[in-house]
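Reading group handout, session on sequence-to-structure problems. Before we discuss, look at one worked example. The prompt was deliberately terse, the way you'd type it at a terminal:

> structure DUF1152 domain-containing protein

The input record follows.
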Amino acid sequence: MPRSLTPPFFAALEDSRRILIAGMGGGFDVFCGLPLYFALRAEGRDVTLANLSFSTFSPLTPRPLAPALIEVTPRTPVRPGEYFPEAYLSRWLAMQGEPSSVYATEKTGVQPALAAYRALTDHLHIDTVILIDGGTDALMRGDEPDLGTPHEDAVSLCAVNELTGLRRFMVSLGFGIDSFHGVSHWNVLEATAELARAGAYLGSFSLTPELPPVQQYRDACEAVFGQMPRHTSIVNSSILSAIHGQYGDHHASERTHGSPLWINPLMAQYWCYELTAVARRLQYREALMDTVTMTDVDRVIGAHRASVAVRPRHTLPI
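And the output record:
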């Protein structure tokens, strides 16, 4: 691609050398960052993976950096079939000769998450954080007709927004997936347009099946899905289907049978933003800052929804 047409996101990363790619919404979100991880590693960058985890950690699990943070390695105990995508990803990375630590933050409010991110970025001397959203609901500001599943996304967004002295970006992958949770993608495009006016939309680009980082992403997903057959990621299965040209009501996972899907080429596209501008749009950001638990987060979002005038639903006019 001519350099003059390269998405601004890559220009913004030009001087980044020690990068943290973190899944912001929990579950398998970190897998949505793997194409970027492999591409940046191939350029010689030092890249580390992290994820807000849905796994349950033992109180005896060592937490040397922060109370809400653990380092998952190939030696981390995991029972066969247990829901622990970070552990299976760590083992797969080790088999590929890649750095195998995947850092996991617990489901908490903003203050413990912020402490975890500060400890981790200081420990690793990180100069750039890229938060990854599997889907697009992290762009919801708070008065849309439906917010999707905002709790974990909002906590990660608010925590990383408080970090200083480093670059911060938010990237989403999986346009259309959050319609399952009621999100109107009219609002997703509205948010992107608003961020473009603010100079904070850094472009988009597609993942195609012949790209080596995409092939590594597919291999990682397939390997981990095989270890967790009852917990196959709907988001990543849908993205991989889109990458390989499936369209419409195509089901790659038994978990989606009976629910209509819209697999489409836009699901295979990264959408890139300056994180601070995304955080600034979040209407209940200040109220979230003192939260400690997910119960606190739920209370804040519920109170906001009860006090705000929810806008009418729009559908895409195409």
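Points for discussion. First: Residues 10-233+267-307 form one domain. Second: The longest helix spans residues 212-227.
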